[in-house]
Amino acid sequence: MTWQLFVFMLINGLCQGMLLFIIASGLSLVFGVLRVINFAHGSLYMIGAFLAYSLSTIFAGESLMGFLILLMVVPPAIAIIGFVLEVSLFRRVYREEHLLQLLLTYALVLILDDLVRVIWGGEPRSVTRPDLLAGSVDIFGMALPSYNVFILVVGPLIAFGLWFLLYRTRTGNIIRAAVSYPDTLGALGVNVSWVMTSTFMLGCWLAGFGGVLTAGLSNIDLGMGMQTIIECFAVVVIGGLGSVGGALLGSLIIGTGLTFFQLPFGRWALVFPYALMALVLVVRPWGFFGKPER
Amino acid sequence: MDDMTSSSRAGWISGITVTVVLFVLPVFLGQLGKTGEYWIWVSTEMIIMALFAMSLNLILGFGGMVSFGHAAFFGVGAYTVALLMKKADFPLYLALTAAPLVAAITAAIVGWFCVRLLGLYFSILTLAFGQLLFMIVFQWYTFTGGDDGLHGVPRPEILGPINYYWLCLILFVICFLIIRMIVNSSFGLSIKTIRENMERAKFIGINVRRYQLLNFIIAGAFAGLAGGMLCELNRFAQTEFLHWSKSAEPILASLVGGIYSLAGPAIGSSILIFLKIFLQQVHRSMVEVWAIVLGVLLLVVVLFAPQGLVGLYQNIFKKSQS
């Protein structure tokens, strides 16, 4: 492998990883505060992608303005769906067993995925990239789509934004306190259930954001939610459940790993996330950045 | 949930009644021509999936461990039958014997790692191993046929639809009795003790991990048999059998039926399959929205009747008694 190819693949892998991070960080954040693994996170991500597709047919996605509108409208829309779900359903099972929580979110997967099929049908679709991002950048004689570069820029921005929110603002202090000591936080007069609702909405916002970005990157279809949620599980498990920094590390490992293993192993590279996830769970169940519990 | 002494006789009577009804059922369905044949096929599938659900409930309800990778053993059983019969010309009875064995060996390997983890982490690891096996079957074209699956599994000539139904029913009844025996044995009681209070189980000298692993292997073996039976019914094995969404099916069935009862999962599974087929017969468009119906049903059960139908029945029954 020449070093040019190496750099090219590294960039591609990081791009995949960044996209995965945006989605998986939402899952991890929600788990951290709500202690619920949300199977429906993948479905919300898929709804985001399909919503972006529908809006792009209205707003003419070729213009940069149209694409920015998608990025500004779709994620909040998913956050609102999240708000409704959290207030009406999730809230009722926080004190229940894991089984009931998992099944509640799985029921939502069944409902939401089928709704997407009923509304949008089964054909693969895609969003036209804005002209500005439709070209490609020359990297050592290999053409890297500018859209990938765009994701490579947006991903770290989101990561930085999350870090800033969590570690440099009062809101972040409260969210982190809700992760560690929800009872104490409540005793201090903070409305913990509102913290949970807003964290859940933030998680959904991230899922929606990832959905819009994916719609521009590749074809979107009905299987994307199911597939992505498992990849997100892998990411979150590797990094540590509830840790956003861990999600970043996990995403980058999975993203670059998938890209690099494709060269020697072909389609078998797809086994990598599951194998790594199983390995991490066996050796260090709480992941790289998580804390051992229970 | 375990009031064996009082309801034991009633249990035997209703059990035998149901079995007899199920045995004569295909004779009547057979008179109905094509529709009857279709319903015999559906009933056979119900029996098989009931066994699958009951096998999972050994871990889920009695063991208190939520496995999201149980379909892996179901699929391994199915592929064992398909491969042995298609590529090695094994007779059916040998293939159906091999299916639970191979599944049990797989479960032993997977379970050895999984029982080391608790709660949510156990669930995720079973999911990871399940998907790992799914991916291997999915990618290994030369051996498993990849996403095409393996079609044209041979069927012995004497096994027409009705005969195969009877075979499955006999196997189911045998498995039901074995599972009942396991649940009521000292092993089964230990498993329930672990579910209720793991610390205490350790204190009284129960080797928690070994018991859980053994339980996991037994459950895997029954799932493998169910998978093998379904493979022979459909005469194909496909990767979908191992997918994690297939693992969710017996969980839903168990929850709907009631996870703290022996027959609950079997009842739940049969009801869900019947409901699905029934709605499809009522109107074609119901095929499209079946997942929504199932999802809403599941939501209702989770929120309002987490004990399932059997629990609901027991609640009402006990109230009317007192």
Sequence-ordered SSE layout with sheet pairings:
The complex is a heterodimer of chains A (294) and B (322).
Chain A: H1 3-34, H2 41-59, H3 64-88, H4 98-120, H5 131-134, E1 136-139, E2 142-145, H6 146-168, H7 170-180, H8 182-187, H9 192-217, H10 224-239, H11 244-265, H12 272-283
Antiparallel strand pairs in A: 1-2
Chain B: H1 4-30, H2 34-62, H3 71-87, H4 92-114, H5 119-139, H6 141-144, E1 150-151, H7 161-184, H8 186-196, H9 198-203, H10 208-234, E2 236-237, H11 244-257, H12 264-282, H13 286-304, H14 308-321
Antiparallel strand pairs in B: 1-2
Helix pairs in contact in B: 1-2, 1-7, 2-7, 2-10, 2-11, 2-12, 3-4, 3-5, 3-10, 4-5, 4-10, 7-8, 8-10, 11-12, 11-14, 12-13
How many discrete domains of chain A? 1
Helix count from the secondary structure assignment of chain B = 14
Written as H for each helix and E for each strand, in order along the chain, the element string of chain A is: HHHHHEEHHHHHHH
Termini separation of chain B comes to: 16 Å
Strand content of chain B: under 5%
CATH architecture of chain A: Orthogonal Bundle
Query: What is the approximate shape of chain B?
Result: globular
Sketch the major β-sheet of chain A: 2 strands, antiparallel
Strand order of the largest sheet of chain B: 1-2
Which structural class do you get from the secondary structure elements of chain B?
mainly alpha
Report on the structure:
The complex is a heterodimer of chains A (294) and B (322). Chain A has 294 residues and is mostly helical. Chain A has a single domain (3-283), classed as ABC transporter involved in vitamin B12 uptake, BtuC (Orthogonal Bundle). Chain A has 12 helices and 2 strands; from the N terminus they run αααααββααααααα. Chain A has a two-stranded antiparallel ribbon with strand order 1-2. In chain A, strand 1 (136-139) and strand 2 form a beta hairpin. The longest helix of chain A has 32 residues, at 3-34. Chain B has 322 residues and is an all-alpha fold. Chain B has helices at 4-30, 34-62, 71-87, 92-114, 119-139, 141-144, 161-184, 186-196, 198-203, 208-234, 244-257, 264-282, 286-304, 308-321, and strands at 150-151, 236-237. A two-stranded antiparallel ribbon of chain B has the order 1-2. In chain B, helix 2 (34-62) runs antiparallel to helix 10 and helix 4 (92-114) crosses helix 5 (119-139). The radius of gyration of chain B is 19 Å and the shape is globular. The chains are: A mainly alpha (294), B mainly alpha (322). At the A-B interface, helix 4, helix 10 and helix 12 of A face helix 5, helix 11 and helix 13 of B.
